[in-house]
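Quick one, T. Sequence first:
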Amino acid sequence: MDLHPNHSSNSPTSSASSTATNPNPNPRPTTRNTLSSLTATDDDPMHSWWESISKARSRIHSLATLLPPSLSSPLSSLADSDRPALSLLSSLHAYSAVSAVLSTPLSGSGSDPLCNWLYDTFLSSDPHLRLVVFSFLPLLSGLYLSRIHSLSSDSLTSLPSLAGFEAVLLALYAAETKARNGKPVVVSIPDLSQPSLYHIPARSPKMSNSNSNGGNVQSIGVLSPPLEPQVAVKSTKRACIVGVALDSYYKHISQMPAWSKIEFCRFLASWAGQDCSCQKQFESGDSHGEPEIAGFSEAGSGNESEIGIEDDVAEEMGQLRIEQNGNGNGVSHVEESKGARIPLPWELLQPALRILGHCLLGPLNSQDVKDAASIAVRRLYARASHDLVPQAILATQSLIQLDNRGREAAKAVAAGANSASNVNTPSKAKKPEILLVSKLVFVLVDAREVTDIIRLKICL
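Structure tokens:
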């Protein structure tokens, strides 16, 4: 009876004596925790920097082993740079070497080493290495869609599978699905009853309650529904998977090199199909950029107004004639065919138009990118006119008109600068003229251009 109380009363003294004799009863975990905390606080920035450098160099060396010796020799200099991943991203030679190997007829299978390299590189945690994979997405998606739709039923068994391309696309799709977290991508559509965006009053709790009771509610457009996880590329989900991958590319498009954008524009022009004479209707017009023929219904107007209805219909149908080798819009033609004509559902066409809009209207894009985008958007307009897709017709027509006005504004600015230089012939450049260029580019926005921008917002 007395042992239990004595034991309980003596237990604090025994524990106190044990702590007095051994102040650190378990020294090893404390030492490990101290070392881990020191490394986490002191050496973490340098360690992560060196880890990213070494990882990028190892990925570049592994890529060099997958390329022919004649193409892989300059990659060693990229690995020795201070920022190897960014050096690989900005190397045209490396992109051309990978493009030459990926464009071979037997590429894209499940055992393709380059597809495995792209897949493993994207799964790495280095954001710069992921940008390298994104730069090859136009080439990969273009080759994949062109080949998968050009395969006939009798030749399907003789050609290799495209599981390597699909694995990379599924990795991009899975990353975007995880980033969206099961939520749709929505956009607020402005109230077109207001004079401008700046006339929309600020929202307050009272206004939100009144709007919910029957007032004007700002429209919400769903750009993309919630994504579902996919483990394979099915024929019914192929356009959605590629479209989501292209949407991920659009998020990083400001960091993409020019040759990657040109590659996408060439593939998009090939996806739209052959040239059509209806793409030329926006090329000739007055000084305000209005097309000579505003639509197919006006093709028979003018001097031939007395021609019968049958002749007018025949002439309008002639506008839809497919031409084999036309260049169309006066811009330098596409150098080579990069793919085949494929179906263009809206879930694939919508992100493609976003990318095309950046390539066409981005102020920092080179003229080669803008010319390639100008050809692609006119091909897409002709394709949308044949397929009768209202969203695509509105979006491509707005992009064409914005492109025409931008080119006319640039010509006017260049002509004004040349005339001013011929009159004054200054020995050094004037800063006010440079400021005048920027002002003219941004001030030349009339009601039609605002309408085109709003139509693009609604469609895209």
